[in-house]
Design brief:
By secondary structure, the chain is an alpha+beta fold. The protein folds into two domains: 1-44, N-terminal domain of TfIIb; 46-162, GMP Synthetase, Chain A, domain 3, CATH 3.30.300. It contains four helices and seven strands, in the order E-E-E-H-E-E-H-H-E-E-H. Helix 1 (46-69) crosses helix 2 (108-121). The two termini are 16 Å apart.
Length: 167
């Protein structure tokens, strides 16, 4: 894969009870183990940083797909939560993510379609697909929350992606 962007180096000192800093200084944060995991809390943590990155990236993908499909979405927002729990299949821990999208300008079917499309093109979604559980939901113009199936639909996904002009 040709790399079109690479972050500045980000360095961790002290792991979950320390700091993270990027070489350009734009990221300079203290991190701590959350209280729920026996730590002091009061600072950010890797899961929260992952949620922030996923929400921002997914939101950009969502806006792009909506524009390509000519779907009005209004003042959209994306809320992300990332969970951490024991790995049921072996040692260590696993992540799980939930993304809730609010599309006040879209009807139910268009809202679901745009969220599915964003899940296909978002780099975070592509990195997590078949690796961690990702739950998607959307609140369109009717104000009700709907689950968005993100299951394995390869033919439909390939057809959808081939209809987008992503270059």
């Amino acid at each position: 894969m040709p790399i079109v962007y690479r972050t500045p180096t980000v360095t961790s000192i002290g792991g979950r009870d320390g700091s993270v800093r990027s070489a350009d200084g734009l990221v300079d944060l203290q991190v701590a183990l959350p209280k729920e995991l026996g730590g002091p809390g009061g600072k950010t943590n890797p899961e929260e940083l992952f949620a922030a990155g996923y929400a921002a990236c997914f939101h950009s993908a969502l806006k792009r797909v909506a524009a390509e499909k000519k779907v009005a979405i209004g003042n959209s927002t994306v809320e992300a939560q990332v969970g951490l729990g024991p790995n049921d299949d072996g040692p260590g821990f696993m992540l799980a993510a939930e993304l809730h999208v609010i599309l006040p300008g879209a009807d139910v079917e268009n809202a679901k379609d745009v969220v599915r499309g964003a899940h296909l093109v978002c780099p975070y979604s592509n990195a997590t697909r078949n690796n961690i559980e990702v739950k998607l939901s959307v609140t369109p113009a009717d104000g009700r929350e709907y689950d968005v199936a993100s299951g394995d639909r390869h033919r439909r996904q390939e057809a959808y992606v081939s209809n987008l002009d992503l270059d």
